[in-house]
TrEMBL record:
Pfam family, one: Leu_Phe_trans
Name of protein: Leucyl/phenylalanyl-tRNA--protein transferase
Localization (cell): Cytoplasm
Stored Gene3D superfamilies: Leucyl/phenylalanyl-tRNA-protein transferase, C-terminal domain, Leucyl/phenylalanyl-tRNA-protein transferase, N-terminal domain
EC number from the UniProt entry: 2.3.2.6
CC per GO annotation: cytoplasm
Function according to Swiss-Prot or TrEMBL: Functions in the N-end rule pathway of protein degradation where it conjugates Leu, Phe and, less efficiently, Met from aminoacyl-tRNAs to the N-termini of proteins containing an N-terminal arginine or lysine.
Gene Ontology molecular function: leucyl-tRNA--protein transferase activity
Record NCBIfam families: aat (TIGR00667)
Root EC class: transferase
Residue runs in coiled coils: none
Record InterPro entries: Acyl_CoA_acyltransferase, Leu/Phe-tRNA_Trfase, Leu/Phe-tRNA_Trfase_C, Leu/Phe-tRNA_Trfase_N
Main location: cytoplasm
Amino acid sequence: MPPVEPPPSRWSFGEPLGQHLFDDMVGIGADLEPGTLLAAYRRGLFPMPGGKPGDPLHWFCPVDRGVLPLDGLVVSRSLRRSCRDFEIRVDTAFADVVDACADPARPQGWIDGDIRSAYLRLHELGWAHSVEAWRDGRLAGGLYGVAVGGLFAGESMFHHERDASKVALVGLVGLLRDEYVDARLLDVQWMTPHLASLGVVEIQRTTYLGLLSRALRAPLPAIWR
């Protein structure tokens, strides 16, 4: 189903520059309505819950943004072998993927009930998607994020079996490598040592915003149009 544009947000997001030149966090407040989330992603922002229940939302546009160049994914020999052991599916278990990513046993968990509900609504409207690695009829790993034009904003990933989340990432890159590959942008928010080992690099905020502007003019990958 092509994505359905929700009512516009009642909030306005300014440019994530100016007084925020050296801060990753560029805003506080607003809400998680679909229109608000889409407006934020189109301006380069993404939400995180506040530190305590009842705290306002925090909005981030990192000074150093983690992105995965689509021609830079590092696929080791062992990962290439693992890719043969899993079946890639798309959007068949979105809620299960989000729930696995939100597992409270995971360190530094941030996906609360409000975030879960918000992205389930985005999924129902055709904007949020999961890429899943299955084996023997079991969901073994996956990732989810938001697709707006040529942007895929990755939110979180998980695995129950070795390499399963990496296999899902390989599958996502395959979906994005089409005739519009030069305009597409795979955003992972922040670079970590694990993501760096897969080819993720850091770019400056201004560079990211320029790439984002171009990506938003590209069409969605064919599977989500």
